[in-house]
């Protein structure tokens, strides 16, 4: 069963039929031939919009996976997803230069996560996966980020909102290469704006 | 163990290195792990090739370059600051040859066509150790880029980052360019705003296919080709369907949030 972007469904038996009516995009992301995929990753911002395009995109991709191997679906939450914005923008330069902009009220925030779990449930119906909520944030806000994700996951579980989706694993992990704040240049009093580890 | 907790904290590392000699020995490799050389315009009165590699020179004189694992070359702050052979004097090449343990190299605005055919003389020093090559807005034909990649026989990770769709045009002379090696390229492939399908096809043809285990794709026009090529090796795939910035500069995203 493959969903297309217009929300309809159609039966399909082979990868040749894997064509959405008006979205050539689906042809590009067919994973039916892949035999080794273990992890599918995306950013919370990609789910954040809560529009059909984002959820249908992943539903379609997941439905195309034919490999029976277990799959982790990793949602990466960065510091701005929790309202933190760094002073230096590019570098994780710690608490001294990070600001907190609470973007939503507590109620709005809870609603945001509820809706996200709704999307995850819908995705899970087409392909089994283990949901991993990954906080890739400043060291100084790891505890806050993990606590926030765990709280909302637990609230969803209590409400029975996880459905057949297993309780998500909440982790704190660098999913990208860790950036050193600045290079050290002997004899220089100034730091270069860019660190070489921000390659 | 203690030092390992501070490897991203420069000030603490400096303090550790001044504690005693054994702490210095433990801290100094982390302190000099990454190095950026860029022209910040402060040496405008000097000829470019003498002015810009000041960090390299200082580290060279102190014998620290073998500790550098990551090097980023930024010819300037803006896109029109291109990295050409004019930036490389004999002295800079001598500094390059002291980077004996370099594993990650990033170059912005590399003008490959200007380096041909003697590019090996400029970057060949890094061949034995380089594992990760990151090119931000490189220009040149597919064959020229391929030739450059082929200089590094142990390359595992590759990153191309463009701001706009780009297509390189090759010349007849480029057809004679055959990569000197076929790097394994079994690590991570990161592509941002990448529209050079011809380059991917050439990589497949000359390197005997692609075998990346991880892919991070943001606004890429040849996803189908990449997924097919790596269908037996790809373990991790990262996509950004509605994220307009991807993994690249966080600046834009954060500035938008501030607005």
What's this entry about, in short?
The complex is a heterodimer of chains A (199) and B (259). Chain A is an alpha/beta fold.
Structure notes:
- The complex is a heterodimer of chains A (199) and B (259).
- Chain A has 199 residues and is α/β, with parallel strands linked by helices.
- Chain A has helices at 25-28, 44-48, 52-64, 106-126, 142-158, and strands at residues 2-3, 9-10, 39-43, 72-78, 84-86, 98-100, 130-136, 169-172.
- In chain A, the strands form 3 sheets. A 4-stranded parallel sheet of chain A has the order 3-4-7-8. A two-stranded antiparallel ribbon of chain A has the order 1-2. A two-stranded antiparallel ribbon of chain A has the order 5-6.
- The termini of chain A are far apart.
- Chain B is globular and about 55 Å long.
- In chain B, strands 1-2-3-4-5-6-7-8 form an 8-stranded parallel sheet.
- Chain B has 259 residues and is of the alpha/beta class.
- In chain B, strand 7 (214-220), helix 10 (223-229) and strand 8 (236-239) form a beta-alpha-beta unit.
- The longest helix of chain B has 11 residues, at 21-31.
- Chain B has helices spanning 10-17, 21-31, 48-51, 54-61, 90-97, 112-115, 119-123, 142-149, 197-207, 223-229, 250-258; strands spanning 34-38, 70-74, 104-108, 132-136, 157-161, 188-194, 214-220, 236-239.
- The chains are: A alpha/beta (199), B alpha/beta (259).
- Chains A and B meet through strand 3, helix 2 and helix 3 of A and helix 1, strand 1, helix 4, strand 2 and strand 3 of B.
């Amino acid at each position: 069963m493959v969903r297309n972007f217009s929300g309809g469904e159609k039966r399909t038996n082979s990868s040749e039929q894997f064509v959405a009516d008006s979205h050539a995009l689906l042809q590009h992301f067919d994973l039916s031939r892949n035999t080794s995929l273990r992890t599918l990753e995306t950013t919370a911002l990609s789910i954040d919009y809560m529009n059909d395009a984002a959820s249908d995109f992943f539903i379609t991709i997941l439905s195309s996976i034919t490999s029976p191997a277990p799959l982790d679906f990793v949602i990466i939450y960065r510091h701005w997803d929790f309202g933190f914005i760094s002073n230096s923008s590019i570098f994780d330069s710690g608490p001294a230069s990070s600001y907190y902009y609470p973007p939503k009220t507590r109620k709005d925030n809870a609603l945001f996560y509820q809706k996200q779990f709704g999307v995850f449930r819908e995705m899970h119906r087409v392909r089994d996966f283990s949901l991993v909520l990954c906080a890739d944030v400043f060291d100084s806000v790891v505890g806050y980020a993990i606590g926030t994700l765990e709280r909302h996951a637990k609230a969803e579980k209590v409400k029975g909102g996880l459905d057949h989706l297993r309780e998500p694993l909440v982790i704190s992990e660098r999913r990208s290469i860790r950036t050193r704040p600045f290079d050290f240049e002997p004899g220089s009093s100034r730091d270069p704006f860019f660190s070489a580890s921000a390659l | 163990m203690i030092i390992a907790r501070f490897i991203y904290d420069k000030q603490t590392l400096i303090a550790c290195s001044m504690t005693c000699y054994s702490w210095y020995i433990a801290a100094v490799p982390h302190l000099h792990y990454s190095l950026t050389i860029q022209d910040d315009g402060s040496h405008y009165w000097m000829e470019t090739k003498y002015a810009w590699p000041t960090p390299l020179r200082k580290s060279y004189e102190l014998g620290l370059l073998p500790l550098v694992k990551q090097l980023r070359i930024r010819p300037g702050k803006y896109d029109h600051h291109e990295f050409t052979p004019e930036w490389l004097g004999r002295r800079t090449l001598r500094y390059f040859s002291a980077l004996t343990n370099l594993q990650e190299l990033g170059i912005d605005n590399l003008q490959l066509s200007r380096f041909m055919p003697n590019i090996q003389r400029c970057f060949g020093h890094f061949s034995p150790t380089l594992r990760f090559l990151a090119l931000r807005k490189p220009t040149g034909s597919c064959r020229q880029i391929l030739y450059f990649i082929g200089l590094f026989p142990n390359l595992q990770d590759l990153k191309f980052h463009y701001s706009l769709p780009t297509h390189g045009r090759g010349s007849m002379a480029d057809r004679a360019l055959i990569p000197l090696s076929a790097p394994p390229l079994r690590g991570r492939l990161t592509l941002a705003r990448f529209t050079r399908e011809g380059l991917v096809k050439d990589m497949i043809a000359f390197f005997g296919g692609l075998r990346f285990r991880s892919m991070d794709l943001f606004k890429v026009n040849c996803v189908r080709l990449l997924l097919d090529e790596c269908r037996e090796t790809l373990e991790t795939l990262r996509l950004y369907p509605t994220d307009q910035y991807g993994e690249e500069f966080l600046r834009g995203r954060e500035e938008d949030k501030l607005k």
